[in-house]
Write a structure and sequence with these properties.
Layout: E1 2-11, H1 19-31, E2 36-40, E3 45-49, H2 51-67, E4 72-81, H3 89-101
Length: 102
């Protein structure tokens, strides 16, 4: 199971506001059904799923700003792909929270 953090920044849009682009990109995740879990944050999106699914969805997400008029898109991806045990977004948070209580 892979966990990826994705930030997609449309450039050349003529405005500093990107909310409409973020909403359009987020729709790709909503359309993905149960293939991945995701969490929108104020600065990026966290996606959890099989690596092939995550990468295919990120590719679709990257194209959305172009389809909506952006002239340039900068996409940053960080992938945590742990293979010795199953890792989830919730498991990672619980692990840190448990350590904070010690």
């Amino acid at each position: 199971m892979a966990i990826a953090q994705v930030t997609i920044v449309p450039l050349g849009t003529g405005t500093p506001s990107v909310g409409e682009y973020v909403a359009a990109v987020h729709q790709v995740l909503m359309d993905a059904g149960e293939r991945v879990k995701f969490q929108l944050t104020p600065m990026s999106t966290i996606i959890e799923g099989e690596l092939d699914d995550v990468l295919a969805i990120v590719r679709k997400m990257h194209e959305v700003p172009f389809q909506n008029g952006a002239q340039r898109v900068s996409t940053s991806i960080t992938i945590d792909d742990r293979r010795d045990k199953k890792g989830t977004m919730e498991q990672k948070l619980r692990s840190v929270e448990q350590k904070l209580k010690q």
